[in-house]
Fold this sequence. Notes:
about 280 residues; alpha/beta; four-stranded mixed β-sheet
Amino acid sequence: MARDEQITNALTIDFEDWYQGLEIPYAEWDAFEDRIEAVGRKLLRILDEEKTTATFFILGYVAEKHPALVKEIEAAGHEIGTHGFSHTLIYTQTPEVFRAEMKRAVGFLENLTGQKVVGHRAPFFSITKDSLWALDVLGELGIRYDSSIFPVVNYRYGIADAPRFPYEIERGGHKFTEFPVSTLKIGNVTVPVAGGAYFRIYPYHLTKQFLKAVNRQNHPFTFYLHPWELDPEHPRVKVPRRIAELTHYFNLGATERRFRKLLRDFRFAPMKTVLNIN
């Protein structure tokens, strides 16, 4: 099947630097090497060469430090969404702190680009049953869709019985769409297949079959990637083995080749486009 005859899938980028997803406290970030400029432009070059646009869920901390880079992303035709400000697990925050950080992150992006931010993804997919109150804050801020509720079991995130495909949420008088990252149902088990470490752990031919399986059910696939996954030379720091060896640093050298192949094998667009949100 030609790419232009396929279902359009959602391509999303969690735009953060390499150390920001390692559960290192925000207050300690200044001690680490900043590599987002170089790898961010590498990612933009790949997307341009593969003629694909994406949703960039941009961390507020990164946006404030690199506003010119955000403008480059926007100028290249990509959607600008928010990834919050400090990459903190939401269920460890109070509603007041989360609201303040979100206002800061969203306000900065909107003032910088002149465009309304309509999409959100929580750090570590950390809208769980313990932090559903965060959805009320998103509604207050005018968010039109969220992509934070991962319908799996994981030590850090997940609502196992949440719907697997896009659905409507109404809370406190606000309506928006939840667009979860993709999973596959194998027997009674819901398996994460959507990107990130899963993309580097599974052989590419399996990822391809997973994506085809979701499309055969007439649903768009939601794929996500971090820019640091295209930077296999980024520094190694001491973190728990489950993070270092099993997820963060695993098979980084394969990411670019696999990512380019994915973009050639399937049709992708920003999440807002897939949802037909103006």
